[in-house]
Amino acid sequence: MDHFLYRDGQLYAEDVPVAEIAAAVGSPAYIYSTATLLRHFTLFDEALSWGPHLVCYAMKAASNQAILKTLAEAGAGMDVVSGGEYARAKAAGVPGDRIVFSGVGKTREEIRTVLEGGIRQFNIESEPEMRAISEIAASMGVTAPVTIRVNPDVDAKTHAKIATGKSENKFGIPIAKAREVYAEAARLPGLKVVGIDVHIGSQLTELEPFAMAYRKVAELTQELREDGHEITRLDLGGGLGIPYTRSNEAPPLPVEYGAMIERELGHLGCEIEIEPGRLIAGNAGILLSEVIYLKEGEGRNFLILDAAMNDLIRPAMYDAHHDIVPVIEPQAATEQQPYDIVGPVCESGDTFAKGRMMPPLGPGDLVAFRSAGAYGAVMSSEYNSRALVPEVLVHGDQFAVIRRRPSFEEMINRDSLPEWLQAD
Ligand SMILES: *Cc1c(COP(=O)(O)O)cnc(C)c1O
């Protein structure tokens, strides 16, 4: 459920007409709903209320300071994957002991910064990384709390670019090797093993792959305890999918996910961490766009929008489907027609949908890409020197720009000319 609904014939974001935001901020623009963000966080928090837990929002999904602060104030921890994300989490007021650090390529500089600023745990992805963290922590005279990310070799049954839990993926260490790597972790200075980490992929629409992975984690927990490790924390990653279309069967709900975790892992007495990103932010955001032209081609009509692949890359990169709805609610009897919906960028890949059935639309009409809150704005670029799309946060009947659109002058001034090209 989200808070982008038609009311009195037009699309609202909570209690604000989307057209009003368009008039104030211009198009295109990302618009987020505070109520939806909080609702999704709370669903996860409640789904794990059977035991000690922390929901660490995977902030790579949408990392605007206002979004982070909204979630942090509700009690969320953060899952970060870079020094930049760590800095953003800290700037939003998240204490170090609620931040977990994931990712396969943590640099020595990032490791040092995070150890200085405080961290709940490193999720270690390889032996060389483990040795680097040990060395740096020991040299600083501190102890780094760590889990090791195991790769359970299960098929997440999702798009190849976002599957991470098969042995051919670059993530984690093979689960069969885990006891050996944990033994080394226990011997190394500067490390304290606190648990196990697993994350098998994104946009999973069934519980079974998770359950298979978590069963393997349960077994490993027993084995590592027999080996003398104190396993008190299980980080189960993110990955629960969201409905991108209204018509499709809905993926499992957080409450069902939480109950499955209790069934598979509840008996171990561990603190549970999860790292949902998409499910918290995905349906909490839309991308607003305006039709520039209706181009009537041979056998097909193109709707050319002012949003493009640089603003929302998911269709080009993951073959992703986004529902696209008109901001003015069509009459029930309106006959739909097929459109190819495209952006202005000079690439054929800049196509959002082909043959999409829509009510008649023309220049000046506003549309909204639904489910664009996760992996939308964060993956945007200024390709074709198109300004980064502004972000807007709605809260009840209020809205605020939380990242403004840069002017062309600002964009140009980010470059600098070397001395030899400067006029005298
Ligand atoms: C991307 C990622 C997540 C979040 O995945 P979602 O599908 O957005 O829930 C969580 N943990 C790790 C380690 C990730 O890489």
Give the overall pLDDT as a whole number: 96
Q: What do we call the CATH homologous superfamily of the largest domain?
A: Alanine racemase
The CATH class of the largest domain turns out to be Alpha Beta
The CATH architecture of the largest domain would be Alpha-Beta Barrel
What is the CATH topology of the largest domain?
A: TIM Barrel
Beta-strand content estimate: 15-25%
Gyration radius, rounded: 23 Å
The beta-strand count equals 21
Helix/strand/pairing category: alpha/beta
The amount of helix comes to 25-40%
Any ligands, ions or cofactors bound here, and which? pyridoxal-5'-phosphate
Treating each run of at least 4 consecutive H or I residues as one helix, how many helices? 12
Low-confidence stretches: none
Function: Specifically catalyzes the decarboxylation of meso-diaminopimelate (meso-DAP) to L-lysine.
Modified residues (N6-(pyridoxal phosphate)lysine): 60
Cofactor: pyridoxal 5'-phosphate
Pathway: Amino-acid biosynthesis; L-lysine biosynthesis via DAP pathway; L-lysine from DL-2,6-diaminopimelate: step 1/1
Explain what you see.
With 424 residues, the chain is an alpha/beta fold. It folds into 2 domains: 4-31 and 283-413, Beta Barrel (Lyase, Ornithine Decarboxylase, Chain A, domain 1), CATH 2.40.37; 34-281, TIM Barrel (Alpha-Beta Barrel). 28% of the residues lie in helices and 25% in strands. The chain is built from 12 helices and 21 strands. The protein has helices at 18-25, 34-47, 65-73, 83-91, 108-117, 127-140, 178-187, 208-226, 254-265, 278-281, 314-318, 408-413; strands at residues 4-7, 10-13, 16-17, 29-33, 53-58, 77-80, 99-101, 121-124, 144-151, 173-174, 191-197, 233-235, 271-274, 285-296, 301-305, 324-326, 337-342, 351-358, 366-369, 391-395, 398-403. The strands form 3 sheets. Strands 4, 14, 15, 16, 17, 18, 19, 20 and 21 form a 9-stranded mixed β-sheet that branches. Helix 3 (65-73) links the parallel strand 5 (53-58) and strand 6. Helix 2 (34-47) packs parallel to helix 9, helix 5 packs across helix 6 and helix 8 (208-226) packs parallel to helix 9 (254-265). 46% of the residues are buried. The model has no long low-confidence stretch (mean pLDDT 96). The chain binds pyridoxal-5'-phosphate. The site of pyridoxal-5'-phosphate has 16 residues, from helix 10.
